[in-house]
Structure formats: structure tokens, C-alpha cells
Amino acid sequence: MTTNDPARWWRQTRGERATLAAIVVLGAVLSSWNLGRGGDLSFYAAAARSMSESLPALMSGSFDPGATVTLDKLAGFAVPQAISIHLFGMSTASLALPQVVEGAVTTLAVSVVVLRWLGARAGLVAAALAAGTPIFVSMFGHPMEDGLLTAALAVALVWWQRAALTRTWWPLLTAGLAVGVGFQAKMLQAWMVLPALVLGTVLATTGPGPRRRRAVGYVAVLVGATVVASLGWSVVVALLPTADHPYVDGSTDDSVFAMVFGYNGVDRFLPGAWPGAVGALGHASAHAADAWRAVAGHRPGHSLLQLVTPPYASQVGWSWPAALTGIVVGAVRWWPGRTVREARVPTATFLTLVVWLGTGFVVLSALTLPHTAYVAGIGVQLAALAALGWWSAARLVDAPDRRLRLVPVALLVVQGAWWAWLARASSEPTLLAVLAVGATVAALVALLVRWRRAAGAPSTRVVGSRRAAAGLLVAAVVLGPACFSLQVLDASRDGSGSDASVGVAQGAFARSGGAPTRALAIGRSPVGRGPGHTDTTGFSVSAPDPWGGQTTLPGEDRELVAAARRDGGGRDGAPLFLTDSWRLAADVIGATGDEVLTDGGFSGQVPVFTTAQVESLVRSGRTRLLVVAAGTPPTDPVRQAATDLGCRVVQRWGSALGQSQPWQSRGGSASTLERCS
After folding, report:
1. Taking residues 452-465, what's their average pLDDT?
2. For the chain, is the Cβ count within 10 Å smaller at the N or the C terminus?
3. What average pLDDT does the segment 21-26 reach?
4. Taken in order 123, 127, 130, 133, is the CA torsion positive or negative?
5. What pLDDT score was predicted for residue 535?
6. How many whole angstroms separate alpha carbon 610 and alpha carbon 619?
7. Are 287 and 604 within 8 A, CB to CB?
8. Are 379 and 130 in contact (CB under 8 A)?
9. Is the distance from CB of 447 to CB of 397 less than 8 angstroms?
10. What is the DSSP letter of 525?
């Protein structure tokens, strides 16, 4: 690896380029196999459609086409989805397509980092590990904010490494911009990479005198670009007059910072710590929390070692033995006290990955994870460090010191045992488990036989057998996650947009709590998935479904839309109606694209409209139709306005109205469409 001319894939051999292309394509095929069967929580799917049809909604990250209320988080993740819907029309597949692209970007980015660090072969191993990581395969096949976050941080690592290699500052601007994109996708989680990048920048650029000042400047560029890219949109919204931006969901005082740093930040650990955040109301986030728990099932208990337990390790942790081998060998090879100037960048790359992995592991272990896709936060680091483990083991196959030859042996033994345990604990199909574990056993036997035969063999035969040994080690490192990921070819095992995971009874929540695995109002029903699904029977390949999945409205919701239109809703640019339930509004917006005014936000407690404002909208003639959801309290602004104005009930529906998912049920009371004179 040269210091002024970073390695590039187009300069590698034709075979290496073709192998990389095949890895990227195969990863995309796995993620896309059930693309038309997947989908997202209807709240976010509706927002993506709104943003696809309305520039104000796109610029403000709004839930509805009229841009009256934002999402309860930054909406950067939904921008690619909105563009895809605008180009291809609203469907399950077009909503998820951008995440497939983000998966390909992640695989390429990981391969570039390791190519520059360890060479082309290690870069290909890293690419195969990234493309085959189960959580990546599922997550990149569903519309989730974690996909853009993962891709953005992988790209940030590429540009940081370029700055370290070329000893120039401008790539750090791009690295900071990429971290900012990750922040727009999933807010504070993107900043978990910053400690590692700062440490790596200092190590790669520091030195005596002027070099020390240069290191400070480089860090300032990186951090400054990150902060500007992360907070720029929020600052603009905060500076705009209230009338010039939609109400900010997640806050009780229309504050974007309360939403970002309170509702989606400190209030998740210390409720009430951030004034103006919904969590500060104590019970205000209960509806949202209940919804998420019901979407994926409640996971009792919490452990600081949860990332190495089967529900999570089966999704991201197959490479732990190889990664730990890489960390140990890398620490010996690049220990700072032994580092010469020429090895500064490889050392910085190594420490950056280790610190990033450690930061992610500690933070994610401390959290009670809402859904499994959070563990993707350590996937990039594990893939790169596991490639280092393979590279180290392959180089020690013929080490003159026979004690060092124990490194590849130990890796194979531990890896095989770890895979066997994970396969059993996660109910992996027997054929796939045997294939993966068998590869490690075969590689171990081949190494032992090779060493016995190598004594006295011609040097040409030794070189050839060394390459064969390296190839066996590749299979023994890559096949574990890859075989487990093949389960996504079965539509009943590919996860969902609310809890991406591979296999049965996997993820943050074992699917035995009676909750549906698909919290979707759009798309065709998946094969074999239903409430309380815990089937561990036969694995079978479903017919590919990479496109389509049209949005549909449940029967009673269709009746509501028809009744509202008969009564004048939606005419001359007016909203279809005003409701106090995002569940109902999301179904209607996602299926029709019509404007629906919605109070309450995701938590049901956000004061988007006061009673006086609802009454003013009615009196002004902007809307005369109110839909009062079942079970709302008398103090609900929409219900109270309907009572104060003496609105007439046009039609009643049972509790199924606006409840296309079972977990949305509020009880037996009726929802009503009311016309106000």
C-alpha cells in the first residue's frame, strides 16, 4: 500500500475485478429475492410517498403531502425511497430498492478499505463477508433507516482512509459529509464512528512540530464537516418562523432539537431530561413504545453480552473468531511502540476499526435494542477485521516457527465450534449448517495433511499448496454467514421492515409472543409468516419476487375514503379529512397519496393541532370532515372540536378502521366520520 497513490480496484487483475463484481451481484440478488413481499411500517411508507409527490414534504421530511407535520425522526433515510417511488411508482419493491443499492455501496466500500490496507485478496474476503452478513442481507432488502446509515459510515471510512494515505485534508470534508448523511438517516447513532475517526486521524498525521499542528487542523476539518452536515438542516428549521415549517413530531414545543436530541436521544435513557421532548411527558411515548413492542414482540431481560447471544450473534456475529484473530495478530504487528513511519497508515486503519468496533459494541450492549437492525452498527468493522484474521492466518500457514502455525489451526477449531453452536441455537437448516461447519473441518484436515506432505517437497509444490490452503481458509471464514444468509431465499425467513433478521425465531424479539412479524399496510403477504410464527420446519426456496407489491386499503378503510369523497373531501386541493390517528392516515396516504391532516404524531400525544385550530380549519372551510378514531379520550382535540361544533356523524365503523395490523386495535368502540357544517 503506497502512501500517495491509494490502490484502486480497476487496477487489479481481471479475475479479481470479476470476483468483486460477482460478490456484489450475489449480495444484491439475496437482498432482492423477496423485495416485492417486504415493506415498511406504514407510518414511514406513507411519509416516503408524501415526499415523492410534494417538494415541501420532501424538503421538510413530512408525514403528509401537505407538510403539516414531520416524521418523529430526521427523514434523510426516506429521501432515496421518495425518489424511487417518484421514478417507479408506489410499490413495496420501489420503496425497498434504494436499500439494495445501499447494500452494494457498503460491500464496495468495505472492499476498498481492505484493498488499500491488506491487498486485493483480503479485499475480496472482506467484500464476501459484508455481502453475506445476515443482518445486511435482510436489512438491505427492506426499507429501513439503518441501510443508509450503514452505507454512509462505510463511505466515510473510505474517504478518511484516503486522507490518511494521501496526507491531504480535503477527503476529510467528504468523510464528514458522509457521517452527516448517516446522521440524517439515524441521528446520534452515526456519531459512534467519530471517536475512531478522530483517533485514526491523529495517529496518521501527528508528529513533531508542524506535523502536530497539522493533525489538529485535520481533526478540526473532520469534526467541523461532520457537525455542519449533521446539524445544518435542523438549524435551518429551528431558525424558520413557526408558520414556515411543519410541526416537528417527537416534540411538545415544535422544537427540532427536542426531537433529535431529546425524543430520539437522552430521553430514551432519562425520560424528562430534555425539555420539550415527548418523553418529558412521562407517559407520552407509551403508545409508540407499545406499538414497537407489539410489532416485534417484547424481549424480556437485557444483558451486557447480548451481542454474542444467539438472537444477535446469528445476525452479525459469525465472524467473531476471525475478527478476534485479526485483532490479536494486528496488535502484535502494529503495536504503536514498534510502528515506523511507513506503517503509520496501516496502524491507523487497524486502530480505527478496533475503536469503532469497541464503541459500537459497548453502546449497543448498553441499549435495550428496539429492533435487530441496530446490530448492523458493528457489521462493517467485523467484516474488515475478519478479513485481517483470514489474511494473518493465511500468511502463517507456512511460518518457519511452527508455533505460529497454530494460529490458523486455532482459528479453524474455534470458528467451527462457534458456527456449530450458533447454527444449533438459531435453528439453522441442517443442510446449510453442515455445509458451513464441514468447510472448517475440511480446511483443518487439509492443513494437517499438507504440513505432513510438505516436508521435503519441491518449492513449486509448496507455493501451490499454500494457495490452496489460503482458498480453504477463505471458505472456512466466509461460508458461515453466507450459508445462514441463504435462508432469505425462503420468504418465511427473510425478516421484515420492522425487525430485519434472517431465519426463524430470530432477532431482538423471538417471534413467539403473538405479534405479527410484518407491521405493514402495503405489499403482498409473505409466505408462511403470521402472528406468533415460530416454525422451524423445512427450509424451501420461494419463487423470486423482486418487483411489485402494490399498496392496498383494507375494506373498511376503502369505505371511509369513498364516503369522504362523496361528502366533498379532497376537492379543489382540500384535504380528504382530518383525523387523530396516524394509523388510519398512513394507510390512506400510502395507498392513495391524498392529503390527510393528522393530529397526535407517532406517539399520539404531539399537539400538532389544538382544539381551537381544528375548529378554525372547519370554520374557514379548509376541511369539514373529521375522523375520530376509536378509543380516543374526550380531551382529544379532534373529538373535542367535533363535539363543540355539533358535527353530524356520517358513518360509523367498527374498531378495525385504520387498523390493518392486529397490534393497532384499540378495543371495541367505533370510529366515526363526522361532517361539520
Report:
1. 55
2. C
3. 97
4. negative
5. 43
6. 14
7. yes
8. yes
9. yes
10. P
Q: For residue 158, with 0-12 CB atoms within 10 Å meaning exposed, 13-18 middle and 19 or more buried, which class applies?
A: buried
How many other CB atoms sit within 10 Å of the CB of residue 22? 14
Starting at the edge strand found earlier in the chain, the sheet holding 671-675 runs 597-598, 578-579, 625-628, 671-675, 648-653
Cell of 577: 379529512
Residue with cell 399496510: 521
Amino acid at 27: G
CA distance 262 to 448: 57
- Record the pTM: 0.90
In DSSP terms, 451 is beta-bridged to none
Q: DSSP code of 541?
A: P
- What is the C-alpha separation between 205 and 539, in angstroms, rounded? 52
* Grid coordinates of 633: 379520550
Measured CA to CA, the distance from residue 40 to residue 219 in angstroms comes to 38
Cell of 620: 374557514
Q: What phi and psi, each to the nearest 5 degrees, are found at residue 316?
A: -140, -10
**What are 675's strand-pairing partners?**
625, 648
Q: Which residues pair with 606 in a beta bridge?
A: 600
Q: Which of 110, 135, 157 is nearest to 387 (CA)?
A: 110
CA-to-CA distance for 408 and 398, rounded, in angstroms?
A: 10
Cell of 27: 449480495
Backbone angles phi, psi at 665, to 5 degrees: -60, 135
Lowest mean pLDDT among 57-61, 221-225, 648-652: 648-652
Distance CA(373)–CA(214), nearest Å, equals 38
Geometric angle at alpha carbon 28, from 313 and 137, rounded to 5°: 15
Residue found under cell 482459528: 411
Q: Express as a percent the part of the chain with pLDDT over 70.
A: 84
Single-letter residue type at 376: A
DSSP H/E element including 185: helix 170-186
Mean pLDDT computed over 414-432: 95
